[in-house]
Design a protein that fits this description.
This protein is of the alpha/beta class. The protein has two domains: about 140 residues, Aspartate Aminotransferase, domain 1 (Alpha-Beta Complex); about 240 residues, Type I PLP-dependent aspartate aminotransferase-like (Major domain) (Aspartate Aminotransferase, domain 2, 3-Layer(aba) Sandwich), CATH 3.40.640.10. It is built from 13 helices and twelve strands. A seven-stranded mixed beta sheet has the order 2-8-7-6-5-3-4, with helices on both faces. It has a three-stranded antiparallel beta sheet with strand order 9-12-11. Helix 4 packs parallel to helix 10, helix 5 crosses helix 6 and helix 11 packs parallel to helix 13. The structure holds pyridoxal-5'-phosphate (PLP). Pyridoxal-5'-phosphate binds next to helix 5. The site of pyridoxal-5'-phosphate has 13 residues, from helix 5. Keywords: Aminotransferase, Pyridoxal phosphate, Transferase. Its EC number is 2.6.1.-. Its cofactor is pyridoxal 5'-phosphate.
Length: about 400
């Protein structure tokens, strides 16, 4: 006799208060339609390079099917630390400073749960990845959005941050190269943010999952590599985007031994460890996968230029993305809201993208297009968007 029970009343109010992801709704509609070109998904269209897949197959043949250490295979932690040294000259200790997680998603979740006590505030520049605010709220913290302005190329300044600091502010979360804008931050901009973090004694969570995907001569700067930032930063990265390994679910966190030990406590009770097969593949990605990654990055760069020129010529004002694989055109010239634009474009032209307000209120007036799809599909999508925009005017 369960018919009369209102199950919603049994669900925690914290979960009730979190809105569903604004990305999914349009995918659900698109999934029912034919001939849809999707610029909606933030997922590489490449299959994981064969050498990486093969290492996993070989691992299985050898019988690697067990749990690993909670912190992850030592071999993988060593490769992760070696990568930080090679790329950014930062010294991390494999035994104490790194935790292998189930994607950056898990690392984000446990980083928030590790540092936020109920009521603690965390500054989150917007527009941003849809999970940031939800993870902060689920951890019992209070996410405080800080709008990043197009006038500042979607970067965040200490002045923007100062305007939102209170005596409850405990942390700052930055995510550059940025999803959804494609913005990257210069060393000077990052140093200004680091001084702000020191001034207010904040922990900084730096989500650098798109760090390998930069274009046009930009080189990613690791936040933890800035003066005084290594111990204060929880650096997050993973394999999903750069190595086309979304389904393998491997990410990692790097920080000081105390933070990593505390994160490991949550991880060991909730996750135990990341899958061994995927960890074996991740070792191969770091040892021998860079050449494949570089090839994919150069392909994304071609697509980036194609979509930037195409949407600009179609009459949409575009901020030129320098990282990740998204572009965030301004659609206000059409007279439509972000949601109207996305919905009408899907219905009339069968192109799926994501309304900008899914990434925070200040994303209103924009839409996010992912260019992690083929040149042929991007070209066809641009033609359809141009047709749509002309008919809006
Ligand atoms: N961080 C950002 C900025 C993302 O865009 C995503 C996925 O889209 C994630 C984290 C989650 O990545 P993972 O697949 O490693 O969980």
């Amino acid at each position: 006799m369960t018919e009369n029970i209102d199950w919603n009343k049994r669900i925690s109010p914290v979960v009730h208060a979190i809105p569903p992801s604004g990305i999914r709704r349009f995918f659900d509609i698109a999934a029912e339609m034919e001939d849809v070109i999707s610029l909606g998904v933030g997922e590489p269209d490449f299959i994981t390079p064969w050498a990486i897949r093969e290492s996993c197959v070989y691992g299985l043949e050898q019988g690697y099917t067990s749990y690993t250490a909670n912190r992850g295979l030592l071999e993988l932690r060593e490769e992760i630390c070696a990568l930080q040294k090679r790329n950014f000259n930062i010294d991390y200790e494999p035994k104490t400073d790194v935790l292998v997680t189930v994607g950056v998603s898990e690392a984000l979740d446990i980083a928030m749960r590790t540092i936020l006590a109920p009521g603690d505030e965390i500054l989150i520049p917007e527009p941003c990845y849809v999970s940031y605010k939800a993870c902060a709220a689920l951890a019992g913290g209070v996410p405080v959005p800080v709008p990043a302005k197009i006038e500042n190329n979607f970067s965040i300044t200490p002045e923007d941050l100062e305007a939102h600091v209170t005596d409850k502010t405990k942390a700052l979360l930055i995510g550059y190269p940025n999803n959804p804008t494609g913005a990257v931050l210069s060393r000077e901009q990052l140093i200004a943010i680091s001084r702000f973090a020191v001034k207010h004694d904040l922990i900084v969570i730096s989500d650098e999952i798109y760090g390998d995907l930069t274009y046009g001569g930009e080189r990613h700067i690791c936040f933890a590599g800035l003066p005084e930032m290594k111990d204060r930063t929880i650096l997050l990265n993973g394999f999903s985007k750069a190595y086309a390994m979304t389904g393998w679910r491997i990410g990692y966190a790097l920080s000081n031994p105390d933070i990593i030990a505390a994160m490991t406590k949550i991880h060991q009770y909730t996750m135990l460890c990341a899958p061994i097969t995927a960890q074996i593949a991740a070792v191969e990605a770091l040892r021998n996968g860079e050449k494949y990654m570089k090839k994919m990055v150069s392909e994304y760069d071609k697509r980036r230029r194609l979509i930037y020129d195409g949407l600009t010529n179609a009459g949409l004002k575009c901020f030129e993305p320098k990282g990740a694989f998204y572009i965030f055109p301004d659609i206000t010239s059409t007279g439509l809201t972000s949601e109207e634009f996305a919905e009408k474009l899907l219905m009339k032209e069968h192109v799926a993208l994501v309304p900008g307000n899914a990434f925070g209120e200040c994303g209103e007036g924009y839409v996010r297009c992912s260019y992690a799809t083929s040149v042929a599909k991007i070209s066809e999508a641009i033609a359809r968007i141009e047709h749509f925009v002309q008919h809006c005017r």
